[in-house]
């Protein structure tokens, strides 16, 4: 919190930016809270935008993030800010409130999807309908800011939506191929994807929520989780590589002991991937787990 406040104070000397839509390089500045949203923004804006993603380290826990003064300064320069919402990136909301501007548009995935504040699972980027909706909002705003390149933004949006078909087709193929697939998970980070693939998530929601909120699950829920492995009731263990603890490591060890394949999932887009590639790779990893009993412990 101290870091955020110092950053906000630093903004007092930054000023409110210019009214021009472009920066000194003739590009529109876009700031994304998480790199998966930044990747989509770049896909739509192409060479006409400069995109900065604040959270992009796939080896760090995003829940522990604190903004630095230099990152807070980026708020003052962005014409478009893209964030997840549902409390996942409240640090961004606080920074936006501390430095309000009528010259900036905030595209919040929660608001785009019309979701309530008490939506249980905040990991919206795994929901297949999220990014096309966010991309459409980004394209519309870019067209209004930069009408001379409106044709480019429309074309890029169409290309992005076409690329999403590889993800949705993979989900449909998985569901047809494995209609009775069941998994355990550490927390609900990838639940939207698992639901879209028709996969039965056997881990109690209360256990997933407890780990997501950095709390200890009940002994009963933990025993249920361990029994999923020893009874071989699941065909894969979906493991969040960025939110780990002694308890999640214990579950992972149990899965390995009983020959349950591991599928790594992430809160931040892994390096060398674009958004659609990442989502498709996760479905491929699930297919390998269920079809071949093969783990994918990292992407």
TrEMBL record:
Compartments (UniProt record): Cell envelope
Record-linked Pfam families: ZnuA
Keyword field contains Membrane: no
Listed GO MF terms: metal ion binding
A single Gene Ontology CC term: cell envelope
Biological process terms in GO annotation: cell adhesion; metal ion transport
Keywords from the UniProt entry: Metal-binding, Signal, Transport
SUPFAM superfamilies: Helical backbone' metal receptor
Keyword set includes Metal-binding: yes
Family classification: Belongs to the bacterial solute-binding protein 9 family.
PANTHER family xrefs: HIGH-AFFINITY ZINC UPTAKE SYSTEM PROTEIN ZNUA-RELATED (PTHR42953), METAL-BINDING PROTEIN HI_0362-RELATED (PTHR42953:SF1)
Listed name of the protein: Zinc ABC transporter substrate-binding protein
